[in-house]
Amino acid sequence: MPTEKELIDERMRKLDELRKLGIDPYPYTFKRTHHAAEIIAKHKALKANDRTADKVSVAGRIVAFRKLGAISFMHILDQTGRIQLFFKEGAKGFDLLRLYDIGDWIGAHGVVVATKTGEVSVEVEGFEMLCKSIRPLPDKWHGLKDVELRYRQRYVDLVMNEDVRKVSFQRIAILNAVRDFFREKGFMEVETPVLQPIYGGANARPFVTHHHDLDLKMYLRISLELYHKRLMVGGFEKVFEIGHVFRNEGIDREHNPEFTLLECYQAYADYHDMMELTEDCYNHVAKKVLGTTKIAFQGKEIDLKKPWRRLTMFQAIKEFAKIDVEGLGDADLKNELQKHRLELPQPWSRGAAIAELFKLCEPHLVQPTFIIDHPIETTPLCKPLRTGPKDIVERFEPFINGWEVGNAYSELNDPALQRRLLEEQAKQLRSGAEEAHPMDEDFVRAIEHGMPPTGGLGLGIDRMVMLLTNQASIRDIILFPTMKPDEKK
């Protein structure tokens, strides 16, 4: 079996021969009239050896090639799928097929026929090289033990793996459906800075960079929230954005340092409105992309149909962890954390301890559930509960399949309380709490100008895609996931 170098050398020889024949192996354009899928759909009723009068021009990458003396068969792959090309000896350029290889890009025109096996094909009348590939596609790709190679060489994975292409196209359909949903609800799509002088909007460690001309330390955004609220101050009433955010955290099957987040903000709304919006969004997207609200995920059936269950964080801990946190003092909370091998919050706070105990509940939240009314220590950006203890805030997290898939608040618009809570966070940050919020004076100044009552919602798009495409790893729904460089290469 020839080595990769020998195969490359042979392709280089063919490349030279094409040029000596006056053929440009890398032309600038090609006039295609049809995609593979539309040809096959239109002519699916053809029977063996049927011919049509339809002339088409197709283009794609060669993924299969059989030479049988006076005839040759070739399958090409375009964005919509595969179609067979059928060459007969005597057709224009037939002898040049010896210079073509699997992996090359070809353009061809001819008539639509069905071969003797009944396969819809294009009987080629003329063809041309569109790109001579130098590096051969791998013989063995499916079942790779080194799965990371698939992620590093996604361009090969997309050629060799039909399921990967399907998931990639489904992701695009999901994003389009999300955008359509919010536009139909009257939200305006906005764009906010990725590079920020002060990060905020979530508890996360940021990526740090430097702007040389301004001699300014800057951060990649960890959230979209604070700039959206500035827009609400400025008079926007319903905004949304789908954007990449960056958190300098671990990588696993459910987390990638760069991920896609949707955030939306609505004036004169609260977290109850955001719960309804979440249900409606998931229902709309599932029906649009899958045709149903019932999804199969890794052997589990999940029904996204509204209404979703609602539980307070305290109720969830009592039901699933069998711990009644309302009746426990600080010492008892510490004992429960240690018993369940959970981290003690640093600095200590009762609310942070309760939020840590809630982690015991997450695996039980398979069907869609809103976990509402969180301790105030979990966020400095949320209104206190309107009726009830003021150390509880009007926040919810939606859970599906044991995953937190979003976050939402009745947004805090009391500037004095906002300043105090951010100052407390900044103090924790200075004390070494890497995920605490920094103080953002400009944001507080904006709130001091007045922000209307507002409901805010963030949804993780990647986890939505994982659920709707039945993919257990986030790397399988991101085209180019973050990877450690291949030191062997």
Descriptive account of the structure:
This protein is α+β, with helices and mostly antiparallel strands and 489 residues long. It has two domains: 4-131, Nucleic acid-binding proteins (OB fold (Dihydrolipoamide Acetyltransferase, E2P), Beta Barrel); 160-321 and 361-476, BirA Bifunctional Protein, domain 2 (2-Layer Sandwich), CATH 3.30.930.10. The protein is 30% helix and 27% strand. It contains 13 helices and 19 strands. The protein has helices at residues 4-20, 36-42, 147-152, 154-160, 162-184, 225-233, 271-290, 313-320, 330-339, 350-357, 415-430, 441-448, 461-469, and strands at 51-68, 71-78, 81-88, 105-114, 120-131, 188-189, 195-196, 208-211, 216-220, 238-246, 258-267, 294-297, 300-303, 309-312, 369-375, 392-400, 403-404, 406-410, 454-460. Strands 6, 10, 11, 14, 15, 16, 17, 18 and 19 form a nine-stranded mixed beta sheet that branches. The chain has a five-stranded mixed β-barrel with strand order 1-2-3-5-4. A three-stranded antiparallel beta sheet has the order 7-9-8, with no helix packed on it. Strand 4 and strand 5 (120-131) form a beta hairpin. Helix 9 (330-339) runs parallel beside helix 10 (350-357) and helix 11 (415-430) runs antiparallel to helix 12 (441-448). The chain starts with a helix and ends in a 20-residue tail after the last helix. The mean pLDDT is 95.
